[in-house]
Specification:
Elements (H helix, E strand, L loop, with lengths): L4 E6 L9 H9 L4 E5 L6 H10 L5 E9 L4 H6 L6 E6 L7 H8 L8 E2 L4 H16 L3 H29 L10
Parallel strand pairs: 1-2, 1-3, 3-4, 4-5
Helix pairs in contact: 1-5, 5-6
Length: 176
Amino acid sequence: MSQGRVAVVLGSDSDLDAMRGCFDTLDKLGIPREAHVISAHRTPDDAHEFAKGAREAGYSVIIAAAGGAAHLAGVLASMTTLPVIGVPLASSVLGGADALHSTVQMPPGVPVATVSVGSWGGTNAAVLAAEVLALSDGALSKRLDEYRDDMVAKVRKKAERLREKLGTPRGDSGGT
């Protein structure tokens, strides 16, 4: 197990499905994590208290997922110097564009690393958190290498199945 713990903070419990990939990826990489539901707008005092105490609570990285106005990651980042990774979620009529802009538009000195909108963002947030933690954890670095190698193998296997299905010889892309 990695020494660092990751806090995954959801703006609402309804964000859980979109963040399933985050939890699954952290678990697959053997990274201890805890989930929290904190609203930047409905429970701002809780957000401030959590962020201010996150380092002392043993967290090394915070992943914050929210939709709509999506100020959660920025509010947390304003109260801690731990790395904060924002996951904008598509929970409004704007399809996540509002959440993306709210998460990525941070003022100088209060950064939020922002990943893609939605479930891919959750998975990418977990991988980014792992990369941060792997800087000081050789065993986790090795697990990340294995994770990437597994992705490569899966893509190559899919490519081979497609070549077989279409009758394309290996090495011939069929393009011009």
